[in-house]
Amino acid sequence: MRIKTIILFLTVSLLLIGCSENDNNSDAKKNSAPKEKVEEKDNQGKLSSLSDSGYFEELPDIPKNTLEVINQPPGKFANKTVFQEGVTEKVNNEIEDIPPLPETPSEEEYDKYFRYIYSLSANDFQNPEDLVKKWEFSMFGSSYLQDPKYQFKENYNVEIILDSSGSMGATVGGKTQMELAKEAINEFVSTLPEEVNISLRVYGHKGTGDENDKEKSCSAIEQVYGFKNYQSEEFNKALEHFQPNGWTPIADSLKESFESFKKYDQKTNTNLIYLVSDGIETCEGNPVKVAEEFADSNVSPIINVIGFNVDAEAHKQLLNVAQASNGIYTTVGNKEQLSSEFDRAQEILLRWEEWKGNAMIDAEGKRLDNELDIMKYSNDWNFAKDDQMIRISEILSLLREQKKINLDQEKELKKRSTKVTKLIESSHNEILSDMKETNKKEIESLKEAIKNKYNSAAE
User: Are 228 and 196 in contact (CB under 8 A)?
Assistant: First the structure.
């Protein structure tokens, strides 16, 4: 009996020890579980850190001087109001996957974050060299000018090359970019002197933006009107002939334009081309090279380029196309700005009509016109500055709503925005002072003074 009791006692003890060990193992597992989760969180944090995120790679630098301000590429949402229907959603989609700022960011992390925000918000600030080119362009027939391109000839030929690719279907103020472009073009040509030869060429208006339709669309280049005098009914019919559909063959469009212009040599013809596009070449052509060959030919046209709500990549290419022929490059965001560019050409053509009647250009009056241009330049610059600053603030608000940044971080990023804005203000004052001073000189001296100071970084 005594032996049985001892055996029973030992059995119970062994069972209790086993349970205790199981409990200890269980506790150990519980204690180790949070460690594993912490390590997992750390790993996740590392993977989504700013240094590992592709969002912060190859971003343009924040401008540090006047030259960098006028050469900064426009951001993805340039000229757009963030808090409006359709845009807010696009901005939210753009920023939703970027990693949040760490709780205590380094200066480098703040800088990276702000560069990303700036790359979305940046506006295009007009290069003063482009304004001088507009002055030169406006002085056709003046004794100030030596370049044969800018001297009136007996005949005047104007071709408009219009982008009809699918992206021109984007809406601005309730109408598509194509509708706005057609309206501005029609208003322009309907007021030209009767003797002017007009041509309208379109590209990308056939097929679709699908890869299967690329070959068809890239070969869709058509002169739908001209060269001939303006006939209202016929020209309106030509405008109705196409809608935005496919790809963007800029280079081949310039080649075909070259072939059409060959009969209009520079000796007896003033030749002007307006290329209106909202995007980059997408058909493997080299439009800059073609423009250079075109400009160096016996036709020697001036190729003015209008970028309609373009991104940074298209901005750079279209600018180089214009520079290849010493033409003017302008970015526009709506019909009013587009019409303004055509109005300048209309004024020149009316002056050409007067020149044929032996009228003289009043150079002093032109200087006064230049002063009005300076005033408009100043107003546009200040609008772009304020618009950019507001957009940065709006994007920061959306980032805080998405909990990517907190209130203190928002304030810190706004300080960087304020610093850039002050630089832009300083640049504006510097340029304005130079423009007013140089406007007192002859146009050739004016051109050289500003070109030397604000020579394009690309050159």
Answer: no
Distance CA 87, CA 91 (A): 6
Which of 253, 252, 299, 307 minimizes the C-alpha distance to 272?
299
Distance CA 62, CA 208 (A): 38
Q: How far, in Å, CA of 402 to CA of 405, rounded? A: 8
Give which of 125, 123, 128, 131 is closest to 431, Cα–Cα.
128
Residue 412's closest CA among 402, 424, 399?
399
Token digits of residue 406: 């907190």
* Burial class for 271, CB neighbours closer than 10 Å (0-12, 13-18, 19+): buried
Tokens for 334, please give them.
């709506």
Write b or e for each residue in 367-382: b if 16 or more Cβ atoms lie within 10 A of its Cβ, otherwise e: beebeebbeebbeebe
**What is the enclosing helix (H) or strand (E) of 160?**
strand 155-163
pTM of the predicted model as reported, rounded to 2 decimal places? 0.61
CA gap 118, 116 in Å, rounded: 5
Compute the distance between CA of residue 346 and CA of residue 340 in angstroms, rounded to an integer: 10
- Of 114, 95, 58, nearest in space to 312 by CA: 58
Taken as a whole, the chain contains a residue count of 459
Annotate 386-455 with DSSP letters as a single string.
Answer: HHHHHHHHHHHHHHHHTTSS-HHHHHHHHHHHHHHHHHHHHHHHHHHHHHHHHTTS-HHHHHHHHHHHT-
CB-based contacts of 455, cutoff 8 Å, min separation 6: 129
9-23 residue pLDDT tens = 444 444 444 544 444
Facing residues of 203 across strands? Answer: 163, 221
Give the pair of three-digit tokens for residue 353. 């009509």
* pLDDT tens digits along 166-203: 999 988 888 899 999 999 999 888 888 888 899 999 99
Cβ burial, residue 417 (10 Å; 0-12/13-18/19+) = buried
**Encoded tokens for 157:** 């030929």
The 10 Å CB-count burial string (b at 16+, else e) for 64-95 is eebbebbbbbbbebbbbebeeeeeeeebeebb
